[in-house]
Design brief:
Number of domains: 4
Strand order of the largest sheet: 7-6-11-4-3-14-17-16
CATH architecture of the largest domain: Sandwich
Helix content: 10-25%
CATH topology of the largest domain: Immunoglobulin-like
Oligomer: single chain
Shape: globular
Distance between the termini: 23 Å
Largest sheet: 8 strands, mixed
């Protein structure tokens, strides 16, 4: 391999070795190179370096799958993870994975051979001590911990060579329809989190941020399966997924089974399913569960019809837009399209200001918001469009600065945040919004295929607004239309609930915010004695006062509603946890812990642990952190540092096989954003010549890396021409393009997709695919080989 000349002022020698040679190493955390050195190293995610030796890369996670049953307003989910040890030493596997931010995780079990071990719920520290003792004693053991309400960590220790260990966990969540449409979301991958927290001395709840990732476009080394069943009392209609291609089979009008067509792409983005019920009906009413010690109720009340506001209220819009490295490419382009749609629709009497942020921030107007005339709207859009995406994600500083901008007198302030949410400071963000928002509403937009929904939903709760998720470009106009509808005419405001003759207590939530979305008003609580009386809901619509009475009767009680106790406990834990982030009040910590132990629920302070009583090993294990794929559409700039090719250093046999690269250590911390004209990556420049470096990142199969490299470099001129044509057409390309393809026994490329990076440029993808398919590779023998190649590019 040709040597690269690198300017690496902050890198460790081991990192230089890995970058230059692709040196193989085990995935044990203690062996991984760090981006920055010494005690100032931060909790940054990092790229895993894999070899061609399965003995060294003993990745234990074999498969994960989700089995979902939706009945009425509740979804029951079973996640099954299978771990397999292909190596020769006992392993400890660490796997970070997501779930719904509303998930009530209530059970876990481990299967070792023919033995099934039910996990026990314990206080977090006690569960960790139990796990470590069992690991040391040579017993197979598993530990499930909550790192965030939507991020969990599974540890499985003493997986012996040849072992297959299965771990199952169960959770439930409540589904609330909006505009008569139900939506179920299954997160499948945890996106990389930006952190400026020092690694040294960081608490265990933050260590998960330091996780290995694959490069953009690389498929996960495990399979992901999904099956889903919908059962309803009314006919199910309009069932579809905006995120995946699915196969739907109906067994009658009220039941349907759903499977993902291509499960190879199921594990790198959120799975979203939407459906409606015939006649535009939704599940509403009162459910009661008479328990042994406690009785529970759930009220889902159909909202009043939306009434258009007669008066026109001037509004001041503050747009806070994330332009960090993780937003580079597809997510930022979606954000720009969303901002264009919203800003274009602002009214002449409105006002506008924009704050862009990454490691630093920049405001459109420091002196106050501007009138939303055509000139200022175009100026705002140009300000947003000038940013390519790069740097860290300092969201707290950005929120602080944006919320402190001067207010426009006599205007209602609306704050809009667009981000993927890849940060670890959710609690601090919620607290900052509560303390600084004032008389305003905050509406966060989650941008991307696997956003941090805990942050997006939590910011909406703290800001008394509504969360929006924009999965792809087609969703942007739909979500902006929803946003405008919410702002123009809230459904119900000043909501108050009272109980007449119904002895309700410990009701969640304590107070109901204004209802913007056309969704049911939901209450969960407990009640004493025989159910009777009424629940009375009062509020105001644009047409005036509103009142609704819901009668309570013993016939509404059923033992089949046992899930209500878990759903109530989860909602109460969520509210207490939101309040308990910056200063851990002992009373609230004790209350959350007690709720977790009483209702057997995962919380920040309670964990599940399973221990096989049979001693099977000597307690000596190799610890492996399971690498995660980057979410679809997220570039390599989301992980560690950011690379910027700065000039051509030496000409190769086909016009630029090597170059000088300057790496900026993460997290980058400039005081402000670069000026609007500053650009990175490969852009359209008159007479620009593309400089690329071909790197064979990984081969799975019987092929020599050197021979694959030689075959690709022979096709270098054609690959370069493809890229030059794209740049001359005015396209903005990422610094790296990932190619992933299968070489059949005859040495020819097979399969449909070659380009894995989300370019959004069909001619370029077609050109690169044709160039690769025209290459005659050496045959890998009777079995096909999987090859991942990275094209690193720049212009001179």
């Amino acid at each position: 391999m040709r040597k690269l000349r690198l300017n690496l002022t902050l890198m460790l020698p081991l990192l230089i070795l890995c970058l230059l040679t692709g040196a193989s190493r085990p995935l044990a955390a203690k062996n991984r190179p760090e981006v920055t050195g010494g005690k100032d190293r931060t909790l940054s995610p990092y790229f895993v370096v894999l070899s061609d030796d399965p003995e060294k890369d003993a990745l234990p996670l074999k498969s994960t799958r989700a089995d979902v049953k939706i009945a009425g307003v509740a979804a029951a989910v079973k996640i099954t993870q299978v771990y397999k040890n292909h190596g020769k030493k006992a392993l400890e596997a660490i796997y970070v994975f997501p779930a719904s931010s509303r998930a009530a995780v209530h059970a876990m079990r481990m299967t070792v051979g023919q033995r099934i071990i039910e996990a026990q719920i314990m206080e977090r520290h006690q569960a960790r001590e139990t796990y470590e003792a069992a690991k040391k004693a040579g017993q197979t053991t598993s530990l499930l911990e909550q790192q965030r309400p939507n991020v969990f960590q599974m540890n499985v220790a003493n997986i012996l060579p040849g072992d297959e260990v299965k771990v199952e966990l169960n959770y439930m969540e409540l589904l609330e329809p909006e505009d008569n449409v139900y939506e179920f979301v299954l997160p499948t991958v945890v996106g990389p989190r930006y952190s400026n927290l020092a690694a040294q001395g960081a608490p265990d709840t933050e260590q998960w941020v330091q996780n290995p990732y694959l490069h953009q476009g690389q498929a996960p080394p495990y399979t992901y399966g999904l099956s889903l069943e919908v059962l309803s009392a009314l006919p199910v209609v309009q069932l579809a997924s905006p995120s995946h291609e699915v196969e739907v089979k109906y067994s009658g009008k009220t039941a349907a089974q759903v499977k993902v067509k291509d499960e190879t792409v199921a594990g790198n983005k959120d799975f979203v399913l939407r459906y409606a019920l015939a006649g535009k009906k939704i599940e509403t009413g009162l459910l009661l569960h008479p328990g042994r010690d406690e009785n529970f109720f759930l009220l889902m009340m159909e909202p009043p019809a939306r009434v258009k506001q007669d008066s026109v209220v001037p509004r001041e819009y503050i747009f806070i837009v994330d332009v960090s490295g993780s937003m580079h490419g597809f997510p930022l382009e979606v954000s720009k399209a969303l901002m264009k749609d919203i800003i274009t629709g602002l009214k002449p009497q409105d006002f506008i200001n924009v704050l862009l942020f990454e490691s630093g921030s920049a405001a459109l107007s420091e002196t106050g918001s501007l009138p939303a005339n055509e000139a200022n709207k175009q100026q705002a859009l140009a300000f947003i469009n000038a940013r390519p995406g790069g740097g860290g994600t300092e969201i707290l500083k950005a929120l602080q600065r944006a919320l402190a901008l001067p207010r426009t007198p006599k205007a209602s302030r609306i704050v809009v945040v667009a981000t993927d949410g890849y940060v670890r400071v959710e609690p601090q963000a919620f607290e900052l919004i509560r303390q600084s928002l004032g008389e305003a509403n905050l509406f966060p937009f989650g941008i991307g295929t696997a956003v941090n929904r805990h942050l997006i939903e939590g910011m909406a709760r703290a800001g008394l607004g509504e969360p929006f998720m924009v999965l792809n470009p087609a969703e942007a106009p739909k979500q902006s239309a929803r946003f405008r509808q919410y702002i123009d005419s809230p459904v119900l405001t000043q909501i108050k609930v009272s109980f007449e003759g119904f002895d309700a207590y410990e009701v969640e939530p304590l107070a109901l915010p204004d209802l913007f979305a056309q969704r049911p008003l939901t209450l969960l609580g407990k009640y004493r004695g025989s159910p009777s009386g009424a629940i009375v809901v009062r509020g105001r619509t644009a047409a005036g006062a509103y009142e609704r009475r819901i009668q309570v009767a013993p016939g509404q009680a059923s033992a089949d509603n046992s899930a209500l106790r878990l759903l109530w406990a989860r909602h109460r834990i969520m509210r207490l946890a939101d309040l308990n982030r910056l200063k851990e009040a002992d009373a609230r910590v004790k209350e959350v812990t007690a709720l977790g132990l009483k209702y057997s629920l995962m919380t920040a302070y309670t964990s599940f642990v399973a221990v096989d009583k049979v001693k099977r090993a000597d307690g000596q294990v190799v610890t492996v952190k399971q690498p995660l794929p980057l979410p679809e559409g997220v570039s390599d700039l989301a992980v560690g540092g950011r690379g910027q090719m700065i000039r051509k250093a030496k000409t190769g046999p086909w016009g630029g096989a090597s170059y000088q690269m300057a790496l900026e250590a993460a997290p980058a911390s400039p005081a402000t954003l670069p000026p609007p004209g500053k650009k990175t990556g490969a852009t359209a420049v008159p007479g620009a010549k593309v400089i690329i470096k071909i790197q064979v990142a990984r081969i799975q199969g019987n092929l020599e890396k050197a021979k694959v490299q030689q075959a690709l470099e022979a096709k270098g001129p054609q690959l370069t021409k493809c890229l030059e044509a794209a740049i001359k057409s005015g396209s903005k390309l990422p610094p790296e393009i990932i190619l992933s393809f299968t070489i059949g026994p005859d040495g020819q490329v097979t399969g449909e997709k070659v380009v894995q990076t989300a370019l959004g440029h069909q001619p370029l993808e077609k050109c690169l695919s044709q160039a690769v398919r025209a290459i005659q590779f050496p045959g890998p023998g009777p079995q096909a080989a999987q090859v991942t190649v990275k094209l690193v590019l720049a212009t001179n």
